[in-house]
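Let's inspect one such protein example.
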Amino acid sequence: MKRYKIGDYLMHESAGVCQVKEISELALSGKGSEKEYYELAPVYQAGGQVITPVEDKNGRLRDIKTGDEMQQILDSVDEIDTIDEMNNRVFQERVKSAMSDFEPRALAEVVKTVYLRNKRRIASGKKAMSQDERVLQIAGKKLFDEMAFAMDEGQDTIAQNFFTCLDDGMK
């Protein structure tokens, strides 16, 4: 298990890209003895704060991928698999499982799948499903925030590049 220092940047499972602001011992009510916790500041959420245990038993923290790793994902968007499943309940479970992997390539797979699924629905005269829109927003934010940070670009620019690659691959 990697130990982060104050000032380090890391990925938090739900908060995204964060900077370690403080490491301290706390006794959370009802939890027993004191433990060490990181105080994290989400980079893309002004004024946000996350407190998480230093001892990361649940895999909620990881290093931020490099710019090169993120560029590889962007360069190979058309080669990323999609989740092909007709049963909506099974589809949602597979999406949930991919998102819980907490890895950029799995998130890219979810974003690509839901984006293309929505495009097909709209092209056939149907509305995009609100559940898909929510998944796209959550998975996209996690993916594009990490890509933007690693590649030193804006999130909107990264998202636009990703979706442009998808649209170009459909032609």
In short: The two ends are 45 Å apart (CA to CA).
